[in-house]
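Hi team, as promised in this morning's meeting, here are the two structures we talked about. I've kept the exact order from the run log so nobody has to guess. The first one is mostly here for context; it's the second one we should focus on when we meet again. Sequence first, then the predicted structure tokens.
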Amino acid sequence: MDNLNTHKEKSFYEAFSEEEAERILSKIEFHYTSKHASWLNAAEIEINVMDIECTDRRIGDMETLVREVAAWTRKRNDDEKKINWGFTRGKADKKLSKYYV
């Protein structure tokens, strides 16, 4: 996940009782992405496309949601849809050069 402040343990303690926060936190493990992870942008784009094309309405139960998302995924893969990623290595070097030592 990204580094949004709500994706931290502290946020659970702010939103829930200590007991409930600890119960929830005992079931999850956080894996953070780099703040400059270009793949994260691609994932966010793909999720946005899914929201527009598939999950842009109330879906009343988990079974229907799973079925609809699976059908959308199959169609997207069958159609070989791709994200036209324009952030090249050269652009990255130019943009991030201020961080290089």
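And here is the second protein, the one for discussion:
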Amino acid sequence: MVGMGDGMGVLGRTMAVVLAVVASTAMAQGAAQEAARSTDLAVSGYDGKVQVIYRNGHAYVEIEGLARVTQSSLAFQGKNIVLTLPAATIQVTQAAPASTPPAPAAPQEKGFSRDFLRAGVEQMTVVREWRSAVENAVRTGNPVDQSWVAGYRRNAENRMAMASAMATTESDKEALSLLQNVNGMIQQLSDRFLSLRSTLTYAPTDSLDNDPLDQKILACAQGMTAVAIPGGQFQDVQACH
């Protein structure tokens, strides 16, 4: 016959076994549940996945699989494992600057510019003075001398250079060719009488009365003066050709 003390001992051992079984069953169920929660890890920007395993409420991933997916390298340094990720390619898109409306184009000057007209008038003044000096020398029977002709020639060339630099509009550039023409004419006329001087050939005092080149120079100068109006459009002067 079993005493009460013995019965209590048997009951206690029985309860312990039951609790152990229940606990074991619960742990097995928990492990099964965690195993059922296993998922895959996808790394943004890389192909492939790595399995994630849950243990004791924590998520674990296989490091070799992670290295394979991310194309990383593994190294062992003492007790440490070093995972070296590949250099990331970062694309920076520079924001385009705010578009600003293009600056309005400066209005194109039409007709003769004032600067060119000023330079052109100065050049034509030299041409007229040069012509007058040649004419006075011939009419008074004095030789056309290289000493003073050189001064006129130098001044004319300087004024032509200035006019060329100031020619900006279409009318300026077209009129510039006429200035160059008349500059060549006066040099040709002057050179003719210089040649007579060098050969000691007498030049009649009326040599310029009906001289075509002299009349052409005069007509060119008068025609260009008539069309030289600030802002005016170019008009061809036939006598300058």
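Starting points for discussion:
Residues 75 and 108 are 73 Å apart (CA to CA).
The chain has two domains: 15-74, 114-240.
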